[in-house]
Amino acid sequence: MNEWLKPYGSLLKINFKNTTVYRADMALSTVLTLVSSLVFILVWSAVYYFSSSTAINGVALITTIAYFLVIGAVDLVEMSSLVSNMQNDLQYGNIATSLIRPMSYVSQLIMGIAPDMVILFCFGTVPIIVLVVLLGNFAPSIVTVLLFIAAILVGVSIFNLIGFIFGGLSAYLTNVWGVYSAVSWIFAIAGGGIAPLAFFPHAVTNALLLTPIPITAYVPAATILGMIPSSIAIQSIVVGLVWIVILALIAWFEWTKISKKLNAVGV
Amino acid sequence: MEDVIVVDNVVKRFKTYKSKGGAAKSLFNREKTVVTALDKVSFSVKQGEVVAMLGRNGSGKSTLLKMLIGILHPEEGKIRVLGLDPTKDRIKLVQQVGIVFGSTHPQLWWDLPPIDTFNYIKGMYNIPDKQFEKRLKYFIDLLDLKKIHTRQTRQLSLGERMKCEFVAANIHSPKIVFMDEPTIGVDLPSRVAISNAILSARKELCTTYIITTHVVEDIANVDRIILLDKGKKMFDGTQQSMSGLFKKTVTVELYFAGKVEPKYLRFGKVLRKEDTYVKVKVNPSVIKQGWFISMLHDKKIVNYKIAEPDLTFLLSQMYRSLDSSNRGKV
Amino acid sequence: MFEDVTKNLRFFLLSLKYNWLSFLVYRTQAFVWMVVSTFSTLSGLISISVIYSISGGLPGWSYFQMLALVGMANMVYSIINFMIGPQTFVRALRNGGFDQALTKPYDPIISIFARYGTPYNIGGIISGIGLLAYALSNTAVNALSIVSSILLFGFGAAAVVMFLVMISLVSYVLFRSGNYLQWITAITTSASQYPLAIYGLAGTLLLTVGFPIGLASFYPAEMLFLKINYVYFLAILVLSVVLFIIFYKTSKWLLKFYTSGGG
Lengths: 267, 330, 263
Known about the structure:
Chain A has one domain. In chain A, 74% of the residues lie in helices and 1% in strands. Chain A contains eleven helices and two strands, in the order H-H-E-E-H-H-H-H-H-H-H-H-H. Chain A has a two-stranded antiparallel ribbon. Chain A is globular. By secondary structure, chain B is of the alpha/beta class. Chain B starts with a strand and ends in a 5-residue tail after the last helix. By secondary structure, chain C is an all-alpha fold. Chain C has one domain. The longest helix of chain C is centred in the middle third of the chain and has 33 residues, at 143-175. Chain C starts with a helix and ends in a 9-residue tail after the last helix. Chains in contact: A-B, A-C, B-C.
């Protein structure tokens, strides 16, 4: 078992080292995600300040502030370089260096993105959320915390499955980055990145909750902050799991087709 | 002929970082070091010369080339190219020079055919229409690019792309063309074509060529070789003067009708031996000896070849001597 | 200021032509990218619409005035990316790709614009203009304020673009990396879609002098709706010009630290 795991361990270690080469970069990326949240916090603080009530659509200012911080923290762990990695591999022939290793290509992809996610989760996401929960006097129950973790895991899986599917499209299209960017924008807008979905019309919110979009940002944040009841959180997680199955099937089907085209110089 | 390039005691250093531990440690702990890329290098080049700059990886060839163009600046010393200081007058200088960076930093637009890049260069250097057409035809015929220059660059082979890069660097009538390892990974026919194109352009257009390379075949026809090692100039001269540095030898190859007999192994140092073939290194005086000439007429010897040491051999001797005894400048 | 302005402008336009030719080789991809570049404007429109649908909005700014500000901010963002992709530029500095730019007989700053801009951001510029036009059709503005606003926008955008060049070079010299620069641009654009007063004095100064995107979005919008007087207008104009000169000169100086790359 150890012998089988060794190559993966070595690959993970070197990917970790590679990720830490530009360390100022990593630190700045983390800080900037928070600064991005700060913009929305200040905007909405001004909106609340000049509105006639202390809550808008039932959401208090402190909750809105906490929401944008948590969204930023969750965003950190959902940024994935799968699309660009796969494009480099499939289109430009870098896959040769992966195919000569004694491990599956998909595992290598996961080892490639794991260091980024782990570092950012440990040094970014967790501290920020702990701080927000403590300073905001939010008192999530254990069930809420577990639902939050489940929602994040589902969201990360969905994001990376979509990344894999679009990355795989590199085998057929010249440049998938444009289309993927469009999808990322849609997720940012419809996933609660610019305003909590509670501020959208109910019909829009209800429709969005049937898609895989809100679970990637809005649902985890709203769950830990008590903006949505546990039932909605559970419902969203279940919907997310269904979407994971659908996306995994699409990814598997796509990969089966691509594997047949693969050679050491790409596709 | 006037000097078009003058390099006088040029020094260049780079700062770099060394990791002092594993993945986590290197996050916090790095050591700064200074590398001397060029150490008091001096030489000059005349108009119309074809000069090859050789050296191992990290010897400073590319650094020196980039300083001649004005991309990098010397910390000490002086450089003049066409009478201009590349650091201060870069724009004036690059108007009169061409550069080929090899496949690492191509000039050709990837998604467009090379002819579009040539037209772009025409606009950039304000080349008059007639002059452009004439030069384009000259280079297309010289390098046999008729079926190539209208195809998308990304569809061309490396050899075809490098030939087009050569045209792109020469089409605006530069006085000097700098080529930084232009034939790495390029096939033999394309390398030969580029080499011949350099000689032709030098003869017809009096262009000066400075080429950095590892490929020995690229420098077969150059006027001069400058050898750099660890930032220092170790040799500056012709191929003939390089061979004069080492004990003169010639190689004799003998092809036999039957098995090689022991007596044919005693007249020099055996470099290679097979059943019906032997290659021997001998002192040049041996081949003028009567007994040697008689031996060659032996019926057992069906064919023979006598040659001076080639450039590969000379260079390997050169590197060996640099490694073993810190010989200093020659 | 630029060595031979006409010569460099001609070179820039020539390079723009070939950038477009190269970009349009893949038409579907080109179309997709141009559509994607409008999403920033769309995001701003949705954000403002949500705010004004559930609250009284931001004081002193009507819904359509805010849309005009969003349009301007996104125009600036798209112009910045049209002229220079900071990430691509820093990557080229790091791997030696910038060598090619230095082998051309033109101002190296112009060579940066010629090589590292992204043509598809024209989509963002057009969407910004569209949103601005829609907003203006629902508000009252006069010709003089429009002209003054355009002047402020032009000089402000020039200052911001030059700032990006400078900060990319600073990032290269200090960190040998620039992956975060796109983020900074996006964040400051996002911030500049709203009245600077909500960020306090520090935020206002940051977005006026620190990362001067306010010079090309907020102040031109204020001028458009006569929220500032003409003395203020002149002061902002002079500030834009001064900052442009400082950023340009600093960028030229920073180019001395370029160490190329590779063999």
